[in-house]
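Researcher: Structure prediction, please.
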Amino acid sequence: MSARELGGARSRRRPVRGWADDRGAVAAEFAVSLPAIVAVIVITVGALGACARHVRLQDAVADAARMAARGESAQRVHDVIAAIDGATGVVERGPDDMVCVHATLDAGLGIELSATGCAIDGGG
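Model: Predicted structure follows.
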């Protein structure tokens, strides 16, 4: 008998694949992990968006506090805060000649952003 007939080293037969076959395992693992990857990306982008809105709100509150301290009209002060979609603000005159503006904003998913800015009252 030759080596070919006995299934020796020169045999060209393919190995029999059974349940232990791992072809397609990478695709299956990718399909399973893809929703988690997408969820992490969506949450990260949402958090960055909320941070950007909070910075805009803080800037608007600081501007509104300075305007209120200079004696600008209450309507103009509220317009600065209202320029941020969905923001509402309150102007308070505190002790020691301080004017503070507090604003809140609904960031979605039950998260509320808030910012406070104060300035020394210099208006008349």
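Model: The chain is about 50% helix and 25% strand.
Researcher: Thanks, that helps.
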